[in-house]
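[Q] Does anyone have a clean structure-token version of this?
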Amino acid sequence: MQAEDLEVISPVMASSRPDVYGFSSSCVWVSRLCDPLRTFFLATHFPCDGSAERTLTPRSGRGAPSGARPGPEVTRNPVAGNNVSGHDRSVQSKGPAGRRAGRAFRRQMSRSFTDAQRVRPDPASMKAALRKYGWDFWLSFLMVRHKARITAASRRPDLVPEKLWEVTARAPIFDVALVQLGATWWEHPDMYDRGVIDHVHWVVDQIVEVTRGIRMGDVLGPAAIVRQQTERWTINIAGHHGLTQSENESRADYIGRVWQEIPSCQIDVGQAWARLSQWLHGRGDVLDAIAWDIESSDPLRGSVTVPDSTVKAAELYAELLDLALYPASGVGCLVARDRKRTDLQVYLTARPKLRLQPDLGPNALRALRPLDFSTVVAPDMQKIAQDARTYRREVAQRSSAAHLQRGLAAGTVERAILERRGRAVDGALRAFEQTHEKLGEDFSPAGLATRIFRFIAISEASHVVAEWSSGAERTALLVAASAARSAWRFWLEDTDISLVCMRTVLEQTCRARAWRLRPLKAANLENAPGLVSPSRWIDLAGWRRAGVLNRSMGEFSHLELRSRRSGARQLLSEMQDPETEESLRLYLGRGAALDNVFRLLAFEVIARLQAAGNELAESFRQTITLVDEATHEAEVEQLLNLGLGLRGFDFGEPDFKTPDPRHP
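[A] Here you go.
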């Protein structure tokens, strides 16, 4: 048998890079940017790493009135790589007067930033703050909660348990072996259309990505990655051993039976897989898994202890990823044998005791932040990208294997992690250049920054209003908020994992809406025997026309031989604003889906704010969504009508195929 005979998920199609950071000026949700909001976001230069601070200034206090912020002028940003040698320069200070205004604005922010930290997330406190601070309230209140999460995570190296570090530490060992066996350093994080050895390298990349997510405090998003890799290597093992799913056998039981073929498997992989699926559907012990996400947003809490349940979730990921390396290393060993490089086999199976530092250094921690424009072009990230190229050259040398035999230094593991971030930076920079070529004058990093702010604000607001509810409704809003944070971060990484998280947001938004509008029927559905499909919550919420959006994202939620991702991507290209240029539809499909699910989530957030007080809802519209009630309802109706028109959409044939049956 040849190594290629183990490759049982050869894609039929060749994928492109659809939808990275692009956005169309015809999309009202994206382009409706009021000057105060743009000035706020850009003047504070918030790069999604918590380094910026926004303040609250009482109306009666010093400073400019609400809606007329002093500070730098907002101008169009040049394309990445063209006269951009630092952070986002969309804000340009013109002359001494502009610089003085900018300094005064930052001093004003510094003086009153703590005011936002003292506002408690209950209706009475929020109303009082709104009356005192005006539109500044929502900007500061939501961003300070976002910053609190980032700050709390940066101080907790124990977010990554030892088991996950041990699995991640195998990355440089695999890098040396796989690259010398012909693996390529693929920029795109999704490798459906790559060769067998690249699929082995893919699982290593995904291990690092899971570790990155956990270290940032994201637990739900990594669950989607781990589930995908478990499914991918289930296909490999099942194909190798000729196993098929029985007619009356559940998916979980089948997966568990397949992994029993692996001698080192000591857990029921099927049940572990089912548990991850429960989390992504907001069921089971999901609130325990995302306990860190729930507890880390309070800016007054100080040091946040990592919950044991969050650690156990990360340890479960480590176990499943470690198991995925078993068939992956088996494929690598066969390739090594075929290519007469048996000296590399030991690196694919080794489990050395490593001299490993307990956490990443400061530079590495900064590199984990989401890849918005200002981050991508920042000098420190460009330095990481350059170091990543050096790392890639080094592991390609035969002497690297001999070097590893003398032991693996702690810094080597960090370099392997930073290589992935450097590669992502290179890919993001290239994507920005491609976006500029496609959109021309419509390309605006400033618009992207404002768009990210809106995602952050809506997800944080969902978390706030969740605590005003109880039971399943609270769970739905908390899971929606957590999945929403993962969705936009993965969208910036240009991966279809973002669509998995979007589907969770859609389902949980509809679940919360059902509880708000039809509590008795929602309770009956909650207690129904067996699994409740997302479509049932969508129907009960009264948004049945959005079912086709759920179907399209569902094609990306699982990695199976029957997956029809090409058709689903085509549907996403169709489900956009009718004015979107035809040539850009496929390119913008994933981002349009992200806007759509955030639009629906915002609708439910505002409904709960409205119940607490009209002033809260109205100010949220004016500051965050930038649309009035009638316009928001019209946009939701337009989305639902698009879904109605596509309800019979044909997703076509599956994208993947099994090996040639002529192989033994």
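[Q] Thanks! Anything notable?
[A] Strands lie at 10-11, 73-74, 91-92, 656-657.
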